[in-house]
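Quick one: structure tokens for this chain, please?
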Amino acid sequence: MAIADSIASRSAPARRQGWWARTAYALRKSNKWGYVFIAPLLIDFAVFTVYLVIYAVRISFQELRAGQFEWVGLQNYRMVLADERTWNALRVTVIYTISVVVFGLLLALILAELIFRCGERAQVFFKSAFYLPGVVSTIVLSLVWYWIFNPFYGVLNAIIGLVGIPPQNWLGNPDLALFSIILMTILGGGGGAIVLITAAMGGIPTELYDAAKIDGASEWMRFWKVTLPLLRPTLLYLFVTGFIGHFQTFEQIYVMTSGGPGYPGATETVGFLIYDMAFRSLQIGGAAVLSLMLFVIILIFSVTQFRIFVSELEY
């Protein structure tokens, strides 16, 4: 009996060592070590995205009263859907996002094509110059543009005064305020898109252009038939990320106009309205409903864009 116990006590560590060795070998062979490296990102996504979305859904059925959340059912949904500010904010957000993404990407494409034709040093200079505003805080850029749009001593009024146009109240006129914000965003951004597009242009094989030249294609036809189709994956990425980012715009609206002028605000986006309801009016439930509406709209736009533009492209 003693001999058997001794054999069992010696073989147990050996069995444990064998199990650990087999497990480590199986992990190495199956490449499951990759899950360890992506675990921090998955945990971050689960805590700061999935959990917060679920929490927003719960809050959307409650309201803050006397420091306590009370269940109010669909009351917040009815209140938000009946509020004219909601539909005005959705209209402003859609106009702003489509204008900034479409015209901003078009401008970036034109500038990238012009830069790509330059020498290497000139390319580095122009790409750095256009990318520079991207590393500056949106608040700082907004303050600079606030000075440019100033109706009394702003640079923009001085420029249009040279051609005989009277000074304009760019941010105080409801007909010009949204246009001014869109203009600021288009001209102040786009550096990242230019860098990505020029990098993608550098990856297009020159043999394709040579073949197009042999076929007698003009410069415009080479751009339209060769360059643009092969930039499709890059343009898809810029479209999707641009729509997602600009649908949530807040900083420049807060600094430049605070959602105004007028009522409902001429520049009041959904992002600003969420802030206003949550932190000024303390309608936490209503702000949660608006957040969920924005989430669903961004999801629909993103899926639609993927279905329209996605392609399996190899070159």
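The mean pLDDT is 86.
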